[in-house]
Amino acid sequence: MVSDLSPIDTAKFVSAKRALDFVESGMRLGLGTGSTAAWMVRILGEMVRNEGLKVVGVPTSERTADLARQCGIKVATLDEVKWLDLTIDGADEFDANLNLIKGGGGALLMEKIVATASDQMVVITDISKEVETLGAFPLPVEVISSGWETTKALTEEALMNIDVMGRSGTLRMDRDRPFVTDEGNYILDFHLRRIGEPRKLSLVLNQIPGVVENGLFLDICDTVVIGYGDGNVEVRDINAGTVEHERIDVIERDNLFMDITD
Ligand code: 5RP
Fold it and tell me: Ligand 1, closest atom to CA 90?
């Protein structure tokens, strides 16, 4: 049966599927969070169940851990595994240098720790996430819940000395309550519109008391796999300086196409 996925889901599916070509048996894998990463976990689970692929997955969130277990993937913590061969994760924005904004799904802290503890990070995404300059997507900043309003005010003040076009932060909500991360923190989303100095911004943010981590992933991503709605993928490798194009078949299999809720 040929898929009747929407173009956006096709794009996510084919990027996830192509990224799994980087996986080899015996690898320790960082498993990202989000709707694109959920496709990746589903397809990886199928490879484990049907092809005998042996991997250990370190999930970047509780929801990815639940999904990975459901899919039959062996799950471990980073403390157990210590270092990873490869992390595959989504992104909210990426630029030509493969610098990223992440954290739209609220998992940026573990995502950054896990990706940084990996030999290689492959980002799976669709072309709508590509930007010339980071910042159109509000930058998520994870903060300690106690004193978050002071942290927000300090951050907005610090932003006065950075090349950005907006400074306002909003507390991320989950219906009528603050959104709480897996680590028990809050997220402030900063509407910067254009981030002219991502390195400086990242350093400044992480020096503010109350800030735990920010969603800028700089010099962490090695490869981006961009999916398109027609089933084509583009693989950009920042280290090799290569760009490859390929077409991926999307064939529906019942167990893969159920319950992608992320
Ligand atoms: C979660 C993330 C996600 O990778 C990012 O939000 C992209 O998600 P999606 O694949 O659903 O578009 O950073 O914290």
Answer: 4
Residue positions annotated with a catalytic role: 111
DSSP of 58-69: EESSHHHHHHHH
Q: How far is the CA of 198 from the centre of ligand 1 (A)?
A: 19
What integer best gives the mean pLDDT of the chain?
A: 95
Whether 255 has a pLDDT exceeding 70, the answer reads no
Instruction: Give the rounded distance of the alpha carbon of 181 from its chain centre.
Output: 15
The predicted-structure confidence for 132-148, as pLDDT tens digits, reads as follows 999 999 999 999 999 99
SS3 content of the chain, % helix, strand, coil (to 5): 30, 25, 40
pLDDT of residue 238: 97
Q: Calculate mean pLDDT across residues 221-244.
A: 97
126: Cβ below 6 Å to ligand 1?
Answer: no
Burial track 145-164 (b if 16+ CB lie within 10 A, e otherwise): eeebeebbebbeebbeebeb
Q: Is 45 in the pocket of ligand 1 (CB under 6 A)?
A: no
Give me the domains of the chain, ranges plus CATH numbers: 7-127+219-247 (3.40.50.1360), 139-212 (3.30.70.260)
pLDDT at 4: 81
Residue among 125, 74, 146 at smallest CA distance from 227: 125
